[in-house]
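We read letters as residues; the fold follows as tokens. Both lines appear below.
***
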Amino acid sequence: MKPGETKSERFCRLAEARTNKLIAMMRLLGNLCKTGFYEYNRDQVEQIFTALQLELIKNKMRFLQPQRDKRKRFSLSEPYEIRKPEPLDQPSLAIPLPDGTYLRAVGYPQGPYASVNIYWDNGEIPSSDPICFAEYNPDKPETQRVCIAAYCHDSDETTYYRPYVAAERNCNE
């Protein structure tokens, strides 16, 4: 900290410097798009931007939820709480919308019911309630294993859509 500098001034100074460094590095990354010098495929591009987007979301959440303590100490005097994986711990993609909100897709690849949940975030605090999901359910008949559903904000019921049938996808080929 510089002499006489307040915490707010220090934050502004460091945030501006670090943000400008990140922007400069992103511009350098963007220079890799020149196909005269480099060769890449769509999957590589998706991997790069998914990793960057995930880190941005994680960091934004650190600012918006600073009281969240992930390093809770173990204690025998308190019941052990199994932590459900949080959306920020999973692969995700956030799409900014024109009104400043985000649609956030979060993948849950672990367990028998692999799924993707869609959340609608207000741009400040992420929602913990999904608005819809697509799930692989191995307990269903083979033709109904991919389930797609939407949640209704005014109901406890989930609306399931007609089962996705992989064989029908290829019917025009």
